[in-house]
Amino acid sequence: MSRNVITGGSGLLGVAMARAFLANGEAWFSSSTERSCRAAVDLTGRVEIATGDVGEWVHVLETIRRSRVDCIYHAAAILGSACEASAASSFRVNVMGTMNALEAARLLEVSNIMFVGSGTTFGTASVPAPVDDITRQRPENMYGTSKLCSELLKRQYHRQSGRCAMIVGPTRQITHHYGD
To answer: Could you name the CATH architecture of 3-178?
Structure first.
C-alpha cells in the first residue's frame, strides 16, 4: 500500500482526492490550515490530519518526514479574491509552499510529486483553443501569476533533481510531465 500526503487537504480538490484514493485502499495524510472540514466528515478517522501552513518550511518538512510518504499531492493554494487582496500572502502560500514541498521531497527522497495547476496561467480572456505545450502563458491576475511561478519552479526542480514533477489542472487541456 502506498503512503501519500495531500497539501491543502481540507480544500475542495484535497477532499475529493482523499475520497477517491481511499476508495483504492491507499493510506492518506492530509496537511491543512484547518483541523476539520465540514465537507469531509466522512473522512474522519480514515485520514491523518496535520495542521499547519504550507508556507512554513518547518511544518512541511516535518509533515513529510513524519508521514514517510511515497508521493506528495500538492493542492494547497490561496484562490480568487483572497489571492488578489494580499499578493504577499498569496506568494508565500502558492509559490513558497510549492518550493517547500519540492525541497522536502528532494531532501527526504520522495520519488513523485503531483501539482494542481491552473488554466489561469494562460490568462482569463482570449485563451486559444486548444491549449498545448507551446501555448504562451499570460496570467492576468495574482493567482495565475503565482501558479505560473510554481510551474517554473517545478520545471527547474526536475532539471536539477531528475525527479518526477507532474502538473495537472482541472481547467487545462494538457498535462505537463517532467521525468518518469
So the answer is: 3-Layer(aba) Sandwich (3.40)
